[in-house]
Amino acid sequence: QVQLVESGGGLVQPGGSLRLSCAASTSWFSILVMDWYRQAPGKQRELVAGITGVGSASYADSVKGRFTISRDNAKNTVYLQMNSLKPEDTAVYYCHTRRRDYDYWGQGTQVTVSS
Known about the structure:
Strand content: over 45%
Structural class: mainly beta
Order of helices and strands: EEEEEEEEEEE
Number of helices: 0
Largest sheet: 7 strands, mixed
């Protein structure tokens, strides 16, 4: 069983920054691939960024150069630093991992980019 709890969402103006955090309650954290997904109203959930246990990161084309995913294995936490935010980044952001063919999701945190 893995519990994921996100925090850090909110309202920000275009061009602003936010940092999301996801705390995981598992002793297996350091070997898990951790992902951030997002889902905008009326759209499918999409993968934003992922990071392996040793810190190798990957990003969706839409966020490359603006978002940075990182992790602190000592704190069982993964982060998503979001810079140069755009209105199209508005969505509920979810933390995700998969272990033994089972998907675990956090409850989501709302990010709204608006002036």
